[in-house]
């Protein structure tokens, strides 16, 4: 599972794998130019290209790390592309000018092409990441459904077929093999004919799509799911034998089929040829696992969304339980101070309002910065120190290398509240509270150790809520340890963000 998780993070967060795929494609295409296309040559190309481009792969892999070195984005991007361009120029110069013989066992023009396309891919990825959210059509593509995607694909394929046919129309009309090349001059000269052929080929493809559509949107969801396999078989046979003669007749009388019989699967003028029915039957059979698989993914996605909504609802309820708990403790403290007519009452009211502002507004957020959360904890401790009667030995140690680290709000305060409620407040003499905080790029560590009285060792709702929130927010990413020893309570929380 860890391997799959690491692979998932690599594919989602890194761009370097795109360049790895690109080098594999380049290695494969170079082999296609040989008279003998041997796997040994393919493997040699892979080793050679990966060796040549390893510095640039290293740069791609650690690009996110380097971004912290410069606050100026323009300088960073200029350096990123500049380093790549300089390196590629150097290796190509070395390959062509060293001792008048190539340095690498790779044709010079191949290395030049691979280098040029490397830069183009790097620029293309950069531009795509900047502008992908700014165009409405890009967002719409994400939500295009399967039927529209299939129709669009068939339209493009039909256009390609029309380009090939019109580029070698003479051979086509003689029923010969058409050259696999496109002559755009001929296409422009015969543009109306090109559009006509495109439309007719597309109609032929849509005839096949018609049977897939009926199967996917009526036969499988209605007959198969609701009435069973027997009714589905007869419904499918009825669909085939009613509609395939009708579709075949339409295709038979299209002008392109009159020129060369290619629009019917049987490639003749006989609509009732068994091959035509067999192709339709094949479309129906092949579409069954496709439709069932897509339905499964759709249902699974709906289940995941429901689970996510339930988790979000549960988190909201847990937060609502935390806030009244905090209000109750703090207002109790303020009430006691007002009875004693303390001069610090107004100061406490002001600090309380700041704390409440954080709880009410920032507590709604999914994430807050570590700096905000720690400021909240320090304000809370300051408020508690004002009202305490006994001496408190307080020490807070911070070792934070990543100031931009974010985490869920109101997690850490529960451990501090617990320290005051069950340890410091009931202490007969002096009490201590030591907080140790460490944070780097991927890991956060929080330790709270305090005076502990055995008779007050009950765990309240706060710790139970904390455990549940951690299970929901950071599954298999956190460790919470609660240790009681020598009249001391130690709470340790570690979260791994990698």
UniProtKB/TrEMBL annotation:
Signal transduction histidine kinase internal region domain boundaries: 314-392
Domain of life: Bacteria
InterPro entries attached to this UniProt entry: Bact_2-comp_sensor_kinase, Sig_transdc_His_kin_internal
Pfam families per record: His_kinase
Transmembrane regions listed in the UniProt entry: 12-30, 42-62, 74-98, 110-128, 149-166, 197-216, 228-254, 274-297
Gene Ontology cellular component list: membrane
GO MF annotations, alphabetized: phosphorelay sensor kinase activity
Key words of the record: Kinase, Membrane, Transferase, Transmembrane, Transmembrane helix
UniProt cross-references to PANTHER family, sorted A to Z: SENSOR HISTIDINE KINASE YPDA
Name by which UniProt lists this protein: Sensor histidine kinase
């Amino acid at each position: 599972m860890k391997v799959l998780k690491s692979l998932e993070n690599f594919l989602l967060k890194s761009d370097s794998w795109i360049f790895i795929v690109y080098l594999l494609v380049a290695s494969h295409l170079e082999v296609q130019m040989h008279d003998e296309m041997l796997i040994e040559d393919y493997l040699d190309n892979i080793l050679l290209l990966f060796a040549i481009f390893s510095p640039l792969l290293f740069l791609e892999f650690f690009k996110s790390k380097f971004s912290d070195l410069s606050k100026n984005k323009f300088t960073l991007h200029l350096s990123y592309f500049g380093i790549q361009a300089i390196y590629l120029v150097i290796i190509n110069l070395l390959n062509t000018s060293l001792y008048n013989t190539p340095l690498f066992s790779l044709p010079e023009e191949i290395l030049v092409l691979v280098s040029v396309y490397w830069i183009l891919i790097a620029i293309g990825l950069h531009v795509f990441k900047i502008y992908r959210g700014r165009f409405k059509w890009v967002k719409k593509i994400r939500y295009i459904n399967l039927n529209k995607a299939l129709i669009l694909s068939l339209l493009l394929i039909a256009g390609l077929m029309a380009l090939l046919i019109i580029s070698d129309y003479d051979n086509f009309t003689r029923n010969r093999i058409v050259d696999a090349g496109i002559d755009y001059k001929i296409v422009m000269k015969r543009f109306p004919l090109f559009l006509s052929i495109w439309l007719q080929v597309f109609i032929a493809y849509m005839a096949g799509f018609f049977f897939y559509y009926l199967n996917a949107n009526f036969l499988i969801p209605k007959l198969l799911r609701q009435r069973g396999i027997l009714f589905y078989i007869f419904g499918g046979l009825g669909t085939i034998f009613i509609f395939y003669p009708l579709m075949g007749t339409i295709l038979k009388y299209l002008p392109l089929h009159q020129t060369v019989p290619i629009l019917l699967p049987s490639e003749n003028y006989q609509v009732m040829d068994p091959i035509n029915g067999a192709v339709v039957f094949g479309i129906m059979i092949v579409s069954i696992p496709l439709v069932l698989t897509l339905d499964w993914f759709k249902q699974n996605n709906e289940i995941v969304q429901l689970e996510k909504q339930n988790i979000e609802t549960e988190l909201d309820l847990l937060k609502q339980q935390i806030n009244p708990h905090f209000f109750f403790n703090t207002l109790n403290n303020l009430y006691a101070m007002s009875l004693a007519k303390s001069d610090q009452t107004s100061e406490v009211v002001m600090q309380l309002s700041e704390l409440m502002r954080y709880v009410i507004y920032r507590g709604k957020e999914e994430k807050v910065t570590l700096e905000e959360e720690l400021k909240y904890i320090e304000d809370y401790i300051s408020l508690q120190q004002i009202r305490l009667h006994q001496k408190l030995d307080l020490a807070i140690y911070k070792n934070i290398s990543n100031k931009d680290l974010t985490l869920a709000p109101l997690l850490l305060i529960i451990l501090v509240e617990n320290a005051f409620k069950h340890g410091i407040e009931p202490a007969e003499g002096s009490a201590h509270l030591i907080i140790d905080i460490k944070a780097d790029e991927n890991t956060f560590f929080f330790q709270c150790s305090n005076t502990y009285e055995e008779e007050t060792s009950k765990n309240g709702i706060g710790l139970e809520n904390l455990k549940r929130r951690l299970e929901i927010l950071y599954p298999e990413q956190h460790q919470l340890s609660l240790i009681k020893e020598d009249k001391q309570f130690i709470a340790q929380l570690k979260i791994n963000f990698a």
